[in-house]
Amino acid sequence: MDITKLREETPLCRNVIHFNNAGASPMPQPVYERLVTYLQREKEIGGYEAEAEHRPEIEDAYRRLAALVGAQPSELALVGSASRAFQFGLSALPLKPGHKILTSRLEYATVFMNLLQRRQAGIEIEVVPEDGQGAIDLERLEQAIDSRVRLIVLTHIPTHTGTVQPAEAVGRIAREHGLIYFLNATQSLGVYPLNVEEIGCDLMCSTSRKWLRGPRGLGMLYVRSEIRAHLNPPFPDVRAAVWEEPHRFRWPPDARAFETWESNPAATLALGEAAAYAQRVGLEAIWQRVQDLARYLRQRLRELPGARVHDRGQTLSGIVAFTLEDIPPLRVKELLKEHKVNVHTSTARSALLDMQDWGVSEVVRASVHYFNTEEEVEAVVRILAEAS
Ligand SMILES: Cc1ncc(COP(=O)(O)O)c(C=O)c1O
Fold this sequence. Notes:
Blueprint lengths: L2 H6 L8 E2 L10 H17 L1 H7 L1 H15 L6 E4 L2 H10 L8 E4 L5 H10 L5 E4 L10 H7 L4 E7 L11 H10 L3 E5 L11 H4 L3 E5 L11 E5 L1 H4 L13 E4 L2 E3 L14 H17 L1 H20 L4 E3 L9 E6 L4 H10 L2 E2 L1 E4 L4 H4 L6 E6 L6 H14 L1
């Protein structure tokens, strides 16, 4: 990996140390250019006209994204966010009163609240305990499966800590028992070598703006072609659904059923560019480097008196959750900002099931990507040491 070149293509690196890639990671130059040149064209010839002119490239963006995750382009829908993608997918599932959903303790607020809402429809939610190291316990998952269970919902990498859940092993269990498997890959697309075939998920939601380094305002829903016919999409829209007769319409046979007429072609093109960029850098190499950098950051933080690193798990991602003894997390964020370092904080409200046991209601979330460096880690730890 040519870090110098990758940093040159990430102009933000000249101004700040960006350890908020789990929030939004900066678009690399080619991605940014794709966005801007399309908007330029829109300025010149008009919105609908520019979209028509770019139709083949827009379809190509789906192909690039699909290739990144081992899917077919027709299995992808682009919507406004990962949360919307999850809500659309979940609402379309054939769940009935008495059915049960199994999930993990590491779920994101939006995901879990949407599951909770299903209880109004008589659907039961069961949270499978963790394995003693933070991730879902696979044995307990199998034990929880009975004739009422229809769906497993798993957040691959959570929002607030580095734990990587065993998505592939959960997929094998779902397959063996004939269950639908919905993976939330919001914190793994673009950083982890995600492959829907290897994972065995039937649905997957994710986002453009985080580790994939695409533009903001775009989420993705993957729907395995074999299960599409069993889904009942919640909102017909003129883009894909066909109003055939005054009192009858037809759904498209693929994931596009979840899209709307109004879309953001500039962002779609840029997302395709981001997918191609990630492929060129190489997902295996990205995952290795991010894990190494995060490990180094955790190690250096642990050497800091009064610092506590909260991440647990056999496999850890680029998300590092920590607190300092004397300085509240929000103050740490402000203080780092004053030194041109971007981090974020996670509050218990974003992952209540897990964080309620942590004994702290907020943590600093530092998330490193492949373009970050050991020197940046050193600089951040130095600022924290001086502050505390
Ligand atoms: C684990 C996880 N899932 C889902 C989401 C929701 O993503 P979006 O903001 O695109 O809806 C987030 C956002 O931070 C997240 O961290």
